Amino acid sequence: MKKILVTGGTTFVSKYTAQYFANKGYDTYVLNRGSKPQVEGVTLLKGDRHELGSLLKSHTFDAVLDITSYNGNDINDLLGGLGQFDTYIFISSSAVYPETEPQPFEESYKLSVNKFWGKYGTDKIEAEKTLLDKVPNAYILRPPYLYGPMNNVYREAFVFDCAMNDRKFCLPGDGSMKLQFFHVEDLCKLMEIIINNNPDEHILNVGNSDSITIRDWVTKCYASLGKTPMFVNIPGDIEQRQYFSFYNYEYALDITKMLSILPDTIDLNEGLAQCAEWYKDNEAEVRKKPFFDFIDNNFKDLI
Prior knowledge:
Layout: E1 3-7, H1 12-23, E2 27-32, E3 43-46, E4 60-66, H2 72-81, E5 84-91, H3 119-134, E6 139-142, E7 145-147, H4 156-164, E8 169-172, E9 178-179, E10 181-183, H5 184-197, E11 203-205, E12 212-213, H6 214-223, E13 231-234, H7 256-259, H8 268-282, H9 291-298
Parallel strand pairs: 1-2, 1-4, 2-3, 4-5, 5-6, 6-11, 7-10, 8-13
Antiparallel strand pairs: 9-12
């Protein structure tokens, strides 16, 4: 039984990861402040990653799954508190690529500020550099938009709310902008492969092979609840993040390297159906944004 440490363990990706590996029979430890309920089957190491003291020093981990580092300080403080470990996997982001680079983005591209992601992206760049300076054989995964059960971000849940309330859907422009997704379970499967096989590639873009238009994604979200959307097209001069879950920014990742390790990923229809079922019983876990207020106050003549 391999012993792994998951940073976090109480919210979306880290929570799903902790549950995945516990269910798979790994000796799963989570590092968090203990302020929220823990998933079943894990061992809590209660503490703040910035004030670890000797909390982790006596533990030897086969793998550290760092889901929650956002900057260099996060990396430094965790590494300083760890004892022995074999494999380190850091979840970075596609936000490290500047929007000006040719697409699809390749892992070899120079990393720089992205005007849509700003500090979030540059902090992730700093975190990657700090980690590789200290752990050159670490693994870095760069996902696009993550989705799946336990998602507390108001993305597919917003569309589900529209569908369940039989609302017309306010579509940015003609809805042709494309999005790339990756199911959180596929992320966990990839981490498990890395832990057990130690592949040669250490920096990997991850994601589904095909991107999808906003219109088609919304249609699939509605379909997961047995509904069909009626669209209202919103002019492009209105900032879409006021009424929609994503920036007006289309990008794609080259996932050739990932596919050589994880060739099959969850079908988007299946994944969204899982999300819808989870959301029905866990609506309170989602951090909702005031999209409906903006829509009702600004698009009265359209809806």
